Amino acid sequence: MSSAINLSSDISEKKRIDSNSNDNCVDEAQDKKISDGNDGNDEADSDEDSWFCNFTPFRHSSPEATAWALDASTRGPLIMANIFIGKTLLGLAKIAADCDPLSEDPCSSKVYGFKPSSLLTIMITISGVINGCLMPIIGAIVDHTSWRHGVGLGSAVLLIFVNGAIAFISEANWFTMVILQIFGGFAYLTHAVVLFAYFSEISSDRYRIARLAASYNIKQYASSVLFLVLVTGISYVWGLGDVATVRISQGIVVATVMMLMIPAWIRLFKPRAALRTVPENQWLISTGFRKLAKTGYEIVVNHRALKLICCSLLCSEAAGNSFAQVAITFTDQTLRMDTTETGILMLIIFLSSIPGSKFATYITNTFNPLWSYMSGLFMFGSTTVLASIFVKDEADKIKFFLLSLSWGFAFGWIFPAQRTLWVMIIPKQQETEMMGIYICCGQVLLWLPPMIFTILNESGVDIRYGLFSQSVFYYLAILFLLSVGSFENALKETHGDSITDGGEDDI
What we know:
75% helix
C-alpha cells in the first residue's frame, strides 16, 4: 500500500507540472529534440501550427500529442460506423439467401456456402489472419524507413476512399462491400501501427503517457457517443432503412476524417528518419518478421512478467476486438433488434464507458494497473456469461440493455488500465519496439474467437453458446495476469529498483 501512496504522490506532482506546461503547446514542443535529430517543430512550423495545436477540445502539451487527440477522436466514428455497416450486411445477406424476415426461427439457408448469421464473424476471422500476416511488414516500414509519416497520411486518405465507396452499398453489390470492408480493416490497422509508433515518443515520462492514454480513450469514446446519437437520431426521425442509415453514417465518417485526421497528419505529425537500417543480407519485408521473432524470444527468455502480460493480451484483445461483430450478430438473431435499437445499444455501451475510463484512472492510481486491468477483465467476462445465460429471446431485450451498462463500464475500464500497465512495464529505451509487440498481441489471435463462434453457429448450436465462448478468453487472460505476481516485483524485474522516470520532456 505504501508503494501505491508513493505512486499517487508522484502522479499528483507530475499533474501539477503538466498543468503548468500545457499553456504553450508549440513553444514547449520546440524545446525538445527527437532522438534521431529531427525535431519536426522548427520556427517556421510554429506559426502555422499554433492555431491548430491550441484548438481547445484537443489541446495537449505538444503538437503531436494534440495530433494524437485529433486522430483518436476520428477513430471513434470510424469504428462505430462498422455497427451500421455490419447490421446492413447481415440484412442484405439474408435477402440474398431468401430468408423469411418474419420467421421467428433462425435462418438455415446459405449464401456463398455459409449462413448469413456467420457473415460478420467470418469477415473478422479473415481480417484477423490477413492483418496478423501483414502487420510485421508495416512495422518494418515504420522502423527501417523514413516512410512513417507518409504511410500514416496515406492510410488516412485511403480510409476516406474506402468509407466513401461503402456509402454506395446496395442489394446488388453487398458482397463487393464485404470485400471492401475487409480491405478497410487492413487500412485501419496500418494507420494504427503508425499512430502507436508516434504514441511511444510523445513523452519520456511513463506517468504522462498513462494519463494521455486515458484522455485519448475518453475522447474516442465521446466522439463515438456523438456519432451514435447523430446517426441513430437521424435514422429514427427520418424513418430511414438500413441502407440509407449506412449512407448517412459513412458521409459523417468521411467528413470527420477530412476535418480532423487529415489536418492532424498534414500539420502536426512530423516526418521521422529511419530508426535503424535494414540489416545486411536481409529484405525489408523479412526484417519485420525477424525482428518480431527476436523480440518475442527475448521477452520469453528474459522477461517473465512481460511474457505473461503478452499472453494475457493475446487472449483479451482477441475477444475484445471481435466483440462488436459477435454482439451485432447476437442481437440480430436472438433479439431481432433493428438498426435504431442496435444504435441505442451501442450508445449505452459507450456512454457508460466514459465513467469506466475515469474509474480506471482512480483504481489504477489507488492500487496499481495490474490489479485494475484484471478487475476490468473480470467484469467484462462475467457480464458476457450473464448475457449468455439470461438473454434468450426478444422478451429479454431490457435485460440485454441493462447488461450493456456493465459491458460499457468494463470496456472503458479495461483499455486505460491495459495501456498504463504496458507502458509502465516495458523495458526502457525499447518503447517503439514494444508498442509494436503490443499491437501484434491484439492481432495474432483475432481470428480465433470469431472462428469458434462461426463453427458453433454453422453446426446449429444455440447462438448463446457462441456468445458464452467469448468469455473464456477473458478468464484465460486473468489467469495469466494472476501468474505475474505483485506489480511491484514485476516492475523491479524489468527496471530494477527504479520505478519512476522523472522525465517531463515531450516531443
